[in-house]
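Can't attach files on this board, so I'm pasting raw text. These are the components:
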Amino acid sequence: MPADILGKLAAILGPSGLITDPADLAPKLRDHRGRYAGAAAFAVRPARVADLAAAMALLYEAGVPMVPQGGNTGLVGGATPDGSGREVLILTDRLRQIRAVDPAGDTITVEAGCLLAEVQAAAEAAGRHYAVSLASEGSCTIGGNLSTNAGGIHVLRYGNTREQVLGLEVVLPDGRLWHGLRALRKDNTGYDLKHLFIGAEGTLGVITAACLKLWPRPAGRAVAFCAVSDVAAAVALLGRLRGAAGEALTAFELIPEIGLGFVLRHMPGRRRPLAAPSPWYVLTEIASQGADQQAVLEAALGTAIADGLVQDAAIAASDAQAAALWALREDMSDAQRPEGASLKHDVSIPVPGIAGFVAAAEASVRARDPGVRIVCFGHVGDGNLHFNLSQPLGASPADFLARTEEFAQLVHDIVHAHAGSISAEHGLGRLKVEEITRYHDQVEIDLKRRIKTAFDPKGLMNPGKVVRQ
Amino acid sequence: MPADILGKLAAILGPSGLITDPADLAPKLRDHRGRYAGAAAFAVRPARVADLAAAMALLYEAGVPMVPQGGNTGLVGGATPDGSGREVLILTDRLRQIRAVDPAGDTITVEAGCLLAEVQAAAEAAGRHYAVSLASEGSCTIGGNLSTNAGGIHVLRYGNTREQVLGLEVVLPDGRLWHGLRALRKDNTGYDLKHLFIGAEGTLGVITAACLKLWPRPAGRAVAFCAVSDVAAAVALLGRLRGAAGEALTAFELIPEIGLGFVLRHMPGRRRPLAAPSPWYVLTEIASQGADQQAVLEAALGTAIADGLVQDAAIAASDAQAAALWALREDMSDAQRPEGASLKHDVSIPVPGIAGFVAAAEASVRARDPGVRIVCFGHVGDGNLHFNLSQPLGASPADFLARTEEFAQLVHDIVHAHAGSISAEHGLGRLKVEEITRYHDQVEIDLKRRIKTAFDPKGLMNPGKVVRQ
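---
Top answer:
Structure tokens for the assembled complex are below.
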């Protein structure tokens, strides 16, 4: 790295725009789950997009590799630098303006460093709804959401983060700015560049701002917690509710008894919503403009109980009850922690294949190690399961974590055989960058490399993530 | 072209797989509107994807430029070969299998040559709904819809063709096959290749099949025809109906009195739906799973009339009445033909800017030529207007057509000043490939060229369309 680069960057970025103190850098050099730790020469922390562009032009010219980081809540090591100490972190937390809220046009224009919860709140304040919701919404940034195409609990109705985007502003690796911040619902003027940057995990440039869709605020919602005897019954119930409620079906989450048990054991104040335990549960929500959500849900579940598809169901009678039901689902991931080490598999399967996949994956895991506790839950409405494995009771956490690759291959091979994806909503990052080459064919790998090379010929943007050059 | 290439292609494609007779080729060498005419050495017409891949490998190796063509209903010359006679047409009409309909997974997998209407019908037969609907649905192909990211009348609710796509199968320029035919709602495994091919107008490869989303069939619909005094009132009404009906608002179309007059004059059997003429009308539709569409629409329009926002409204009391109201909108384009030459501008504007855009564009056109008859209609709910100009009464059609570029620049400069797009749903094709460089900055042009070169280094795929290399 050129000796004078820090001085030049300081002149561009101002006194708060550089972090060089190792103590200040330290928390940004580890990922959220503590799986990866790296080093960084320093971090740039621009307050304005133009400053970031100037800084990146300088770094690119000097051949310095750059790693963008938002809220550092990612689960695949995508925002953690390598161990070389050569890489420079790019922090977006000062790019935090909500530039415009336009309720008439149903759009909001925000900078990358805005927290997801801040964007949700700004939309609500304008009488609108920003549709992405996920567990880390209080600490993850919109820039990170965009770069990982974040999913969450309402994809069934509103789509992923990708589907919310009308326009982007991006600093390219060489510091040039792409002015793609459009607010148009229809624009067919050549290749859709924004979709390349969404989900690219910062390997093609740094997203600095986005124009996002807003939705009407649902007038009300109905939430139910249902007992079903198996995964096939859950999938059948999904079909029925979609038939009854159409797009108003907003969430459809699968929960296993073991996961509910972990929540009840470890999370204070939670209580069992149904009298009798059941192997599986479904948490579902209908939200719409009309006032009939409760009636639609009651009627559909009444029929499903009469038909034996659902064994029991509790419909929330108040917002507080709805929140209590949702808390059971939201705690599912955290409640695994006190149970020891866990191996997480964020997979998706075409919905009709879900029951077959779960049966096959359970059988394979049990055949490999009957002590492993399978905690399979998630967004069945989108075909997205978190097929998590908690360590055998009493086993060593380190021994179980050492089997990460073994179980990943076992589970992911079954995912692949069911035409699924080994990364539904978390991305590839560093964790799966090699593994994906086992499942994608050579043509796809080649096309992705060509894109990477076309946009980042020097390979300086978040190297070693998503695609190896 | 190598002398023996026809023989090799015949061996691959079989007796019906090549068209060499000039009489058979002729209808495929002109575009739908008769603006472009070209020549082709011959056409390949594969019955199987593997045959197309083998043929393209041969053509690529020989350096032969290729022009894909679906239903030949495009409006920008994107499927018409140039005049050199060197280009070869690739016809998809024999790739016409509906490979799978999966109502449980809400997907349909179809080959590129299927007509849009065939896909709609297959979805209906399975109790589902394919959401794209447009005037040429009886003759346009899904491959063409995908390659132009076709819009239509229900984008407001369901999005463009792009938003319907889960996976694609594509033959690359060099004949390799990309197996991207996934059926997943969530898949974050690197750059999203499908979004590059969608809307690329065949310049990056030939889409051969797609896995598309299906939707629940709406249980019923309510359709109304409303008189409003100006465009601002129409936009205000859009906001109100979206507030009342949420995503159930399925269509919101602006119609001018002059356009309605053309339809009543030229299209047999049409009648005026409201007693008194009005400068502008809105045709709107609400469709949902519930049974309350009619009530929601009546209540919202009742309030709007009481507030003076709407002057009068007719709500269809039967499917036949709804169809009659829709016919007025669907005939709008054809009804311009008997009025002489017309210049069409397919533009989009952020919704809050629509009234300002229409006022500015009308004033500029009138200042340039007061005799020009402005027929501005379209999908206001998506910000998409067809700002069409019919020739002055009694003027020469040829003289008016000679002013195509003059009026395009006049209208498109105003679009650009209103942060709009000069091609909302028709694409760039050959018509706007140069013009777009006036409105896109150098960074965007450069990125698009890099993509083109990365995917098609020899420049053989639909040359001269979308982007100039």
